[in-house]
Specification:
mainly alpha, elongated
Length: 117
């Protein structure tokens, strides 16, 4: 009787052990990049230049529209002021966007050259 119980227990434990999931080692997650690649950095730089130009054009359009409105009502001083304010916004945004964009393009080119060498 004890032999039957022992052999039954051995068979059941062998069957249970055979059905357990295999242990596999998982690969560690890939390290995150701190900075984008050189091509992405150059593309971001050109995007910044375009954003600055678009914001500047929007400011110039607002200033011009306000100036036209002031001219229509006869406020000549306010018309000049509005157009001047729009031109200043244009210059500020274009200069900021160009500066940021050129800096990113320069970083991207430098990193690309560094990779080659």
């Amino acid at each position: 009787m004890i032999l039957r119980i022992f052999s039954s227990a051995m068979i059941l434990s062998a069957m249970a052990w055979g059905q357990s999931e295999p242990t596999t080692q998982q690969d560690p997650p890939a390290a995150k990049r701190d900075k984008p690649g050189p091509g992405r950095e150059i593309a971001n730089g050109t995007g910044d230049i375009g954003k600055g130009a678009a914001k500047g054009a929007g400011d110039m359009a607002k200033g011009t529209a306000a100036g036209v409105g002031h001219l229509a009502t006869g406020n000549f001083g306010s018309a000049g002021s509005s157009v001047g304010k729009g031109a200043a916004g244009l210059g500020k945004n274009v200069a900021t966007g160009t500066g940021k964009g050129v800096a990113k393009i320069g970083q991207g080119i430098g990193r690309g050259v560094k990779k080659i060498l």
